[in-house]
Amino acid sequence: MSDNNVLEQIATCVEYGKLNAKMAYPPFLKGQDGVEELVPQALAGGAAPNDILTHGLIVGMSRIGVKFKENKVFVPQVLMSAKAMNIGMDFLKPYFADGSVQRKGKFIIGTVEGDLHDIGKNLVSMMVEGNGYEVIDLGVNVPAERFAAAAREHPGAFIGMSALLTTTMVNMEGINRAIKQEDASAVTFAGGAPVSEEFAKSIGIDYYTEEPQELVEILNKLTGYERCA
Known about the structure:
5 strands, alpha/beta, 10 helices, five-stranded parallel β-sheet
């Protein structure tokens, strides 16, 4: 089996959430190997770890991201794809440590102070990590000082803020100000149900996105990476 064939198989398994050979879903892949088998096979066959990431795992996550953006799939399918992606990433962790696999960049994310909602934040985190970025997840109820400290600790990282309440989205202004005071060149993002592009621009946030795939596409443009199709 050629490297291209196994990488395409990995991408398909991530796209459809095929974890391993035992898994009967999706029906057209029943009885076939999943990510759990294919990634070690690719490594044993001499495939470069970075190629497995960029031409296998990331391609699959990009495809499911586009489908989610177009409302062709829903959150459960995305979660299954993310689970498959994470299984594959576990096999690549040693190669991140020795520099064999390169990340596209860093993305800091947190739900703003006063807000305990994390579903949207977690979905964004999975999509961003699945597309080749290192994610620093600050959790929920994150004050401005923690965002600023993370910006200081990870210079050059992109920073995303999430809020699900109108009463907490107003805290984004102070958080964004603190981040910019720490690093004027930091690129900030905002999202969440009550947030709008107009609001984000009015408080100085660089980008507003409605859903994860749009955010990934902006990151790829900013870092010079084209979206895998």
